[in-house]
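Deviation from plan, reported transparently: 2-acetamido-2-deoxy-beta-D-glucopyranose complex.
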Amino acid sequence: MATTRASTSGRVSQAFTILVFFFFFFSTLTASVEAAGRGVNNDKKGDGLGASFIFGDSLVDAGNNNYLSTLSRANMQPNGIDFKASGGNPTGRFTNGRTIGDIVGEELGSANYAIPFLAPNATGKALLAGVNYASGGGGIMNGTGRIFVNRLGMDVQVDFFNTTRKQFDDLLGKEKAKEYISKKSIFSITIGANDFLNNYLFPLLSVGTRFTQTPDDFIGDMLEHLRDQLTRLYQMDARKFVIGNVGPIGCIPYQKTINQLKEDECVDLANKLANQYNVKLKSLLDELNKKLPGAMFVHANVYDLVMELITNYKEYGFISATKACCGNGGQYAGIIPCGPTSSLCEERDKYVFWDPYHPSEAANVIIAKQLLYGDIKVISPVNLSKLRDL
Ligand SMILES: *[C@@H]1O[C@H](CO)[C@@H](O)[C@H](O)[C@H]1NC(C)=O
Ligand SMILES: *[C@@H]1O[C@H](CO)[C@@H](O)[C@H](O)[C@H]1NC(C)=O
Ligand SMILES: *[C@@H]1O[C@H](CO)[C@@H](O)[C@H](O)[C@H]1NC(C)=O
Ligand SMILES: *[C@@H]1O[C@H](CO)[C@@H](O)[C@H](O)[C@H]1NC(C)=O
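Because the crystal trials were delayed, the predicted structure below was used instead.
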């Protein structure tokens, strides 16, 4: 089937350099808007979750990129239009409402959404509900996302957690901090898509890599790095982990549009790479579960969950799993990222995809509920409601 041109799990086209400049122009025109807010209901379980520490890319970025000079941004309307805590204003989230990270934290009883690490008010007691380190354009490999000029890769995110870790000692005292982090907190990691879309598959930057490295070698490198990153978190007392695999990146509206695919087609190469990575990710987590005493690494099968939504979207009440609700360009509004001049669909909760790259809040809710309460086909060895109570 169609050849892959690569996109971004994030946003900008790379095949068409000109779009990068368009987007840059666009972002600089847009006033920056405050990061995510409080106001999460806390009426769930008794003592609930301690902290939710969120690592990853634009799927879970809650505003860090607002504080970077980067081309990967979402703090412009109509992003956030359904985000209640901000009154419908953009926060930097790359979707219309809550991310999967927000929904999971809320359901598990967090007092607030995890606060973006780079937000000025990420200090003092505000940290206790959790911190979000995720960054649009970020990946496992340090070089991933260079096209955006700036983003926080996973190495840097883990360094930032080291800073937070010390702050927790100061806030709670060493002993209590250790207990809070190891027993009551969940570390979620949603990363990897950009390593393909904005690194290995990226036409201009990857030429060198792709000629010298087979997919197997590249994926091997990714998992080596991820092993180090997870181990470092463990060394800083993280014990409860959930790691998402890479979704069907060949099925996003951007890919379907630039490859001029039919509604029910996806780009083979991108999905194949995702699958290849996902198989090895599962083995890595099995290995870490045996090797690191007291830790639980939970595997979240995001690929199958999203694929199921795309394939059977009608059964879930969606009218499209192909077209971006907010976007422009081509058959599926899949070329130009969501912004003030985009066309916007009427029923935002009836689209699987909010923009050319990211799921809508309605899709995020379905995915999050499965991760929280689903069975071992989607989340193993335990679901997140169980992980919290361990
Ligand atoms: C941090 O600041 C933002 C913007 O002023 C605000 O919306 C948010 O509620 C604050 N968060 C916390 C936890 O104080
Ligand atoms: C990774 O990138 C950051 C900047 O984003 C840089 O400070 C750091 O030195 C890099 N690390 C490695 C191992 O190259
Ligand atoms: C955390 O930072 C300290 C320096 O402040 C360093 O010695 C330590 O190795 C870091 N820990 C990890 C796991 O990166
Ligand atoms: C999810 O975990 C809960 C425990 O919190 C358990 O009762 C339930 O059976 C699990 N769901 C599935 C489908 O395995």
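Residues 1-46 have pLDDT under 50 and may be disordered. We consider this an acceptable substitute for the interim report.
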